[in-house]
Amino acid sequence: MIEIPLPGKSVRGSRTGRPIMALLDLLGRRWILRILWELRDESLGFRALQARCEAMSPSVLSQRLRDLGRARIVEQDERADYRLTAPGARLLAALLPLHNWAENWAKSATSLPPAGYSSPKKRSAPR
Amino acid sequence: MIEIPLPGKSVRGSRTGRPIMALLDLLGRRWILRILWELRDESLGFRALQARCEAMSPSVLSQRLRDLGRARIVEQDERADYRLTAPGARLLAALLPLHNWAENWAKSATSLPPAGYSSPKKRSAPR
DNA sequence: GGTACCGCTTCGAAAATCGAAGCGCAAGTG
DNA sequence: CACTTGCGCTTCGATTTTCGAAGCGGTACC
């Protein structure tokens, strides 16, 4: 059985139960951010959602929709299409600025050395 | 060899090269969001960072720091401590509202049915 | 010399993810 | 009615990712 991160529960990497830790655990699972993104302005059925994500595994999609459902971030409408709940929509709104950031990221990234990033420093200076 | 998502590159779930897709892929990797969060207002060394995340695997931490380094989101200072770059700090700023959202999430979640969420609808209505 | 940190790698085990196949169902078609 | 089509979703073996204990080489201090 897999733990679905919920506020107040112990999650991966934190036993404090702080809500932000549960959220970071949940959002850090593969495809979760993408699913939210694809639901940003329309409801989608299971297979439509799968198609938007270049045919992600149906097993994982099913799992993620359960996760998001239990977290009350996503729900199904009367047609069984998936859509954001009211809190889910607010969460997505908080994520929208990422789009702009990514555009700027793209601009600066193309003007950077193409391969090999600055090698890591070896060790710390004396404390 | 593992692909590090960069704008313009083909990433998991999207061959369009749209920057937002690369970003969602990167942020959706385990521990990435948490690492950014822990670096939000201080530089941390490798082991300190590991300790903040309840002893996450050093192998994964190392991998993630490489990912974030190549994406120019994290860099090392002269003491070899890890810190956010200028764009990295802007990215984090975009993520800060998540904290507030999570707090409200926690409030509403405690007043919900504790187990078993509304069963999924079976199939779609006619189109 | 010895001790105590440090950044980070290695490598086998465990867990998550993938993906092709396909089940059961409802609605539409002839 | 039989047949097809599309749907939500599960199953299960293969692949990939993550875990985590151990430890290496280095610096600093004693």
| Uncertain stretches of 5 or more adjacent residues of chain A | none
Largest sheet of chain A: 2 strands, antiparallel
| Assembly level | homodimer
Q: Which radius of gyration of chain A do the C-alpha atoms yield? A: 18 Å
> Termini distance of chain A?
45 Å
Indicate the structural class of chain A: mainly alpha
Q: Greatest chain-chain interface?
A: A-B, 64 and 64 residues
Order of helices and strands of chain A: HHHHEEHH
Strand order of the largest sheet of chain A: 1-2
Roughly what percent helix of chain A?
Answer: 40-55%
Describe the overall structure.
The structure is a homodimer of 127-residue chains. By secondary structure, chain A is mainly alpha-helical. The longest helix of chain A is centred in the C-terminal third of the chain and has 14 residues, at 97-110. Chain A is globular and about 55 Å long. The first copy, chain A, has a two-stranded antiparallel ribbon. Chain A contains six helices and two strands, in the order ααααββαα. At the A-B interface, α1, α2, α4, α5 and α6 of A face α1, α2, α4, α5 and α6 of B. The structure holds a DNA duplex (30 and 30 nucleotides).
